[in-house]
Amino acid sequence: MATILTLAGDGIGPEIMTQAIDVLQAVNKKFTLNLTFESGLIGGTAIDATGEPLPEETLSRARAADAVLLGAVGGPKWDTIERSKRPERGLLKIRSELGLFANLRVAKLYPQLANASSIKAEIISGLDLLIVRELTGGIYFGEPRGIRTLDNGEQQGYNTMVYKTSEIERIGKVAFDLAQVRAKASGKPAKICSVDKANVLEVTELWKQTMTKMQESQYSDVALSHMYADNACMQLIRDPKQFDVMVTGNMFGDILSDEAAMLTGSIGMLPSASLDEEGKGMYEPCHGSAPDIAGQDKANPLATILSVAMMLRYTFKQEQAAQAIEQAVSDVLDDGLRTVDILDSSEADLRQVGCQEMGQAVLAKLV
Ligand code: NAD
Ligand code: IPM
Ligand code: MN
Question: What is its main location (predicted)?
């Protein structure tokens, strides 16, 4: 018996979560996984109910659960309250408190969506890219941080970007190990691109040196390249298939993964796993709470549904169940169903559907 804590959060969070839970329950039954479900509060809805973006109760339930499934947090309603009390702080805190330092963001193009991306089909066809983002350090957590008043009365905002060797090594290990696993599965040579800004920032110079040392001492079978973050953003659009695994820090990884999302057709397609050192994890779509479409049944639930597949793969080692979900998503796309974000209006035989219909169509493939 294993317990999953679901945290729907804000905006489109509850809509996509309802669909993802339905799919997970179907797979639970089909593969006799013995999963039980609990739900909890996080983000703006938690602030409204308790005054805190991550109530103690949610945190202790998350610690006790075998895995967490998160929708999204945030929205304009909470954008002006004191920063330490905002929804996003709840998300950062749960990642940090659970030690979820490794964020795996998979940008895989479903061939049915080759024309849904704003990038030419030939540039993205066959794309299967893994971004390994460090998630509990870097500029997101570095101290000191704040807004201070200078002697002349002017205000100054400041943050600190810091990484210790041990933090770089542990995320490096995840990336190198996964590059090896992927190479084994694909039959292609293992390769990693480490993304930094070592030409300007000392913290990423240490990052680069540490990755190089790891490759030389432990991973001679993995080809390591380095790229500055600005060039990496450009190369991701110019020729994304040059990459297999990209490894980078918290902020660069955040930015690169939203960019990579568009290579798959939509941010609504990008799942992620946020893992600790034992492989326990929280699973979350890469997108946010999309306040502009919340409550309108327009959100694409597939990133969350595919995050469920990652949960089954990484935490529960249920590869068959994970693949069943991925196949069901593919089948539904074959049937021509599209939420508006992945709709290519030049293709005649596609049918626009809402969040609920998309989720239920995936479910129907699994029962
Ligand atoms: P966003 O990802 O919420 O939305 C960006 C754009 O993508 C919007 O036009 C939105 O409609 C669209 N979009 C996002 N997810 C979609 C989906 N599943 N289906 C279809 N379209 C989708 O980013 P934002 O607008 O910069 O941020 C909105 C709020 O979400 C902010 O409060 C932000 O802090 C928060 N946020 C939370 C998370 C998270 O919880 N993991 C991630 C990113 C942003
Ligand atoms: C994400 C989000 C979060 C991040 C925010 C909401 C804290 O953008 O999960 O990508 O920056 O990590
Ligand atoms: Mn982000």
Answer: cytoplasm
> Was 148 annotated as part of a binding site?
no
- In degrees, rounded to 5, the angle at the alpha carbon of residue 138 between the alpha carbons of residues 133 and 141 is 115
Q: At what angle do helices 87-97 and 56-64 cross, to 10 degrees?
A: 30
Delimit the domains of the chain by residue range: 1-103+272-367, 128-263
Same fold, 1-103+272-367 and 128-263: yes
Q: Which amino acid is at 25?
A: Q
Structure confidence by residue, pLDDT tens digits, 88-108:
999 999 999 999 999 999 999
291-303: buried (b, 16+ CB within 10 Å) or exposed (e) per residue? Answer: bebbeeebbbbbb
DSSP alpha helix (H) spans, the chain: 13-30, 44-50, 56-64, 87-97, 121-124, 165-186, 202-218, 229-238, 250-263, 302-314, 319-334, 355-366
Q: What is the pTM for the complete model shown?
A: 0.98
How far apart are the CA of 354 and the centre of ligand 3, in A?
Answer: 24
* 3-class secondary structure, 15: helix
Residue pair 228/197 in contact (Cβ under 8 Å)? The answer is yes
Please write the tens of the pLDDT for every residue from 115-162: 999 999 999 999 999 999 999 999 999 999 999 999 999 999 999 999
Task: State the fold for domain 1-103+272-367.
Answer: Isopropylmalate Dehydrogenase (3.40.718)
What are all long-range contacts of 45-48, with beta carbons under 8 Å and residues at least 24 apart?
45/8, 45/9, 45/10, 46/87, 46/90, 47/78, 47/81, 47/85, 47/86, 47/87, 47/90
What does the pLDDT look like over 14-39, one tens digit per residue?
999 999 999 999 999 999 999 999 99
pLDDT at 320 over 90: yes
Nearest ligand, measured from the Cα of 285: 1
Span from the CA of 165 to the centroid of ligand 1 (angstroms): 32
Query: Looking at the predicted complex, does its ipTM rise above 0.95?
Result: yes
- Tokens for 221, please give them: 């079978």
Catalytic residue list contains 230: yes
Look up the CATH number of domain 128-263: 3.40.718.10
User: Counting ligands in written order, which one lies closest to the CA of residue 255?
Assistant: 3
